[in-house]
Amino acid sequence: MISVCIPVYNFDIEPLITALVPQVKEVGGEIIVIDDQSTKYKTQNRTVINKHKEIRYIELPKNIGRAAIRNLFLKYAQHDYLLFLDCDVYIISPSFLETYVKVIRKSPPAVIVGGRIYGPKPSERKKLLRWKYGVQRESKPADIRRKTPNASFMTNNFVIDKHLFKTIRFNEALRSYGHEDTLFGYELKKRGVKIMHIDNPVLNGDVEDAATYMEKTKQSVENLAFIVKKYGNEKDLAEDITLLKTYLIMRRYLLHLPVKIVAPVVLVVLPPLIRLMASVTLLNIYKLVLFARNR
């Protein structure tokens, strides 16, 4: 019925495995773990995995990136549906897998997104920015996500029909962090594939510090600029990407030109302010200026 696919990079997956194994036994599925040449936790994860015959474990000899590793699961998955989970999530429902299986049996959809939630406000101020962004932009119930199903597509907790996945894969030209889900969702939309959103969330467990998140944000915006330039129609992509939509409005009124002029200064001044204030508003301005500079 379902193959649980977990790409791993430098993270302790014992809590995730411990929660999933009994649920996999109940639904008759399998767990596949592929390690993308981790430098941390590898021995620890091996020890945990070797306790469970339900898990197939592969270690890659070199790092292949977030898109390519997801495509690689097709080589090993035995079931008709693949459930992708990020390695840093936590399972919070004892019927997490059963919920997906019931949906599939009732009316087999092509793609299902379960959603994510965040825990309580972190005590460490350096993690506040990532937590605030996650709560405000990512942690949404299904009834909200259904209003913009493609814009709400995220890869940390989703199910896809194996046969569909063979025809629409993640673009392996994207090796760094960010927007591989955007491009994948765009391909689904172009082909008229409907995304079903349900309330079956995971808990986002890895709340990064602001410095780490700012670097990932930079990579993500640069990836988006690459996607728009090489693969996408700007207007079509903008329907589901607020950052791009805002930029196109700016460009219509030639406001992107002064933004490009001040970008070198703004991109130096803003990051420390964002980290200090944990401001999502300033983060969005930073992303817009960074995107304009890369266009």
Structure description:
- This protein has 295 residues and is α/β, with parallel strands linked by helices.
- The chain has two domains: 206 residues, Spore Coat Polysaccharide Biosynthesis Protein SpsA, Chain A, CATH 3.90.550.10; 82 residues, no CATH class.
- The chain is 49% helix and 15% strand.
- Helix 1 crosses helix 4, helix 9 runs parallel beside helix 13 and helix 12 runs antiparallel to helix 13.
- The model has no long low-confidence stretch (mean pLDDT 94).
How are the SSEs placed, and which strands pair?
Layout: E1 2-8, H1 14-27, E2 30-35, H2 42-49, E3 55-59, H3 66-72, E4 81-85, E5 89-91, H4 96-106, E6 111-113, E7 116-118, H5 128-138, H6 142-145, E8 157-161, H7 162-167, H8 180-190, E9 195-197, E10 202-204, H9 210-230, H10 234-238, H11 242-252, H12 256-277, H13 280-294
Parallel strand pairs: 1-2, 1-4, 2-3, 6-9, 7-10
Antiparallel strand pairs: 4-8, 5-10, 6-8
Helix pairs in contact: 1-4, 9-13, 11-13, 12-13
